[in-house]
Design a protein that fits this description.
about 260 residues
């Protein structure tokens, strides 16, 4: 027996939900309010690199897009973004001493090299700029699940997303495994002052990376061809990830 898809199925394709109702999945952010009050952040260097290992190749285009949107978001909220070459030059100088902080084979971070490079880069930024803080905006992949409930929402890091569908069919089998783990992407925001004290960190969900393929009699999850192309989803994730450093209107978590 099959459940006939509603005529509005096409409206669900790549569709999501942005809701102001309470969502218990919001990330438990870390925010040093007293440090920011003592030394307000006005001028920012947006790091063009990842705080952890770089995202996989299929997410790098989206990572660049999200970093650009983070820059626009900070600017629209009154922050001055210093040219990225300040960080790039400082990082290149640090790399001469510590080498590649990312293992090219495993993709993992060499923790000791990373710490040394960051200390050196921080010293250079303090000498050559009047930046107040360094912002890292990293896209990362992780697992989520759609629910078995009627709408099959997936909820994580403050967002609620409907399933994405690929192709058309006359229905989905009753026994389809909705709750199978699939990959999703989120954004991690980390802010350090120029003395490299972490003053803020949080996460916001963006979107799932898999859709339900309806091209055969046995639907299955497949990776979507277009990844991180929904600007509304990205904007919501960025707003969630910066809250309450930049307060989000209709924040879905506890005040």
């Amino acid at each position: 027996m099959r459940i006939i898809l509603l005529a509005t199925l096409s409206l669900l394709v790549s569709c999501g939900v942005t809701s102001s109702i309470y969502n218990p999945t919001v990330y438990e952010y870390g925010y040093n309010v007293e440090a920011v009050k003592a030394s307000p952040v006005r001028k920012i260097v947006l790091a063009p690199i990842s705080l952890s290992a770089p995202p996989p190749s299929y997410l790098r285009k989206g990572d660049r897009k999200i970093k650009a949107m983070v820059k626009d978001y900070l600017t629209s909220n009154g922050y001055q973004i210093l040219p990225s070459y300040h960080f790039e030059n400082a990082w290149k100088q640090a790399a001469r001493t510590y080498g590649n902080v990312y293992d090219p084979n495993s993709g993992k971070v060499d923790v000791n090299a990373w710490k040394g490079a960051m200390i050196t880069a921080g010293e250079i930024l303090r000498e050559q700029t009047d930046a107040d803080a360094i912002v890292f905006a990293d896209v990362f992949e992780h697992k989520v699940q759609h629910s078995a409930s009627m709408q099959h929402y997936a909820r994580w890091y403050g967002v609620t997303r409907k399933p994405a569908f690929k192709g058309r069919n006359d229905g989905i089998p009753v026994g389809f495994e909705w709750t199978k783990e699939i990959a999703a992407a989120s954004v991690l925001i980390t802010i350090y002052d120029v003395n490299l004290n972490r003053i803020f960190s949080s996460r916001g969900g963006i979107d799932t990376l898999y859709a339900v393929s309806l091209k055969s009699a046995n639907p299955t999850y497949v990776r979507r061809k277009k990844l991180l192309d929904n600007n509304d989803h990205i904007e919501e994730g960025i707003e969630l990830a910066f809250h309450p450093f930049i307060p989000m209107a209709k924040y879905p978590g506890n005040p």
